[in-house]
Specification:
mainly alpha
Length: 463
Amino acid sequence: MAAFGLSVALFLFWSLLGWAALAALHSRRNLLHNLLLAPAVGVAATLLPVFWLNRLGLPVRYAGPLVTILLLAAAIFLLYRFRTPLPLRRLLPFAAVLLVALLLAGHPLLRFGFDWVSYGSDDMANYVLAAHRFHDYGFFALPDGDALLHNRDTSLYYWFMHAVIGDRPGSELLLAWLMSLTRLNGLQVFMPLILALHLALVAAAGALAGRSPRARTAALLTCFLVACSSLTTLGVVYQLIAQTFGLALLCAAGALILPPLPVRRGPWRYGLLGATVLSALLVVYPEVVPFLALAFVLSATIQTLRRRLALPTLLWPLTTLSLFCVLFLNRYLLTALVFIQKAIGKIQPADLRYSLFPFYLLPSGLANLWGFLALSQTTFAEPWLSLAIAAGALLLILAAAAAAWQTWLGQPIAALATVLLAATILFFVRRNDFGLFKVTMFLQPFVLGVLVTAWLRLAGRRA
């Protein structure tokens, strides 16, 4: 139960931090929306100070407890200062859905505790080893040559990955932060951490779908569908921690940044809050930032054409957002941009003779996309296979139509869904098997949310 409780405690801690930040910087017009955003905002606020101090040379074993104490003190002060009421009764259905999400993805924690390593994938090994280096050394600290030569500390090799090559370090730093608080090793706390991030993703997806105060039902249904999504859960149990963390931040960034801008209390507050989440996203998973940028351009263009947005009104909010991002990331911003450029350069056709991820290049991929057919299932009786493929194709067509319609109406989640669906077509046409495999997992929160918002709007029109 201790490992299971750690996931819950992490989620509540980030919720507290995020709720305090949103009370100070965001509109109070939709308190439920703020509560759903709070965990993602809180984990972003946790990561950035750890990132700054580690790059200044302080090992996370010292930085982690210091940052936690200061953040907790700041949150208590802000909550006392602004005294925002908690809509607890409205939150109860969401708490039930989050519990479902935790049990569906993380029930082995109840049996194995800190010994659960799920698939024990290569990704997990890399994240854990890199986290141990951050825990014990500063970001740029030169590794001991003798220890490298005699392979006495494998974690030291990850100096090349982060300090030299410039790979994204966010998930490893957060893992090192948790190690510094619990005094457990990376293998023990990895699964509790990724499950807490999964809960933050489920909540942030609901916040993105329910940005309007009248969209409580859309938020709740989106949270439930994302909690039940087989591909989203696969990302958790397959230990893709940067993906889970990054998608939570992408949903939160979309809810905070995409037009129509939720600016109610001054552009600098919008810039500070948006930059906190966007900067953390660039540290954690910069390869999805182009999707956010394209969704912003698409949404702003459509709302301008519909005369619902004047482009000059974006000037000050975007200026403050950009300035805070530069302030928060400094030289790392260039590193992140280079990383994004390299990721875009990898969109090349694959040699399908050696494909490891052929799932979505086959007709059965349409069924895999919606969880009608497991990725590991190689045989399926007819006519059920054909029916599953047909149902998947129909849902994909409906999702594309719903995304286009809702984007025209100004739904932020629809703009992101439209961009990701377009990316899916691009990867399919280019026969990029790995890229297609990844983007189908990215799609889940957005395509499920846009189907919910479109269905509810149609139901409302008939009512």
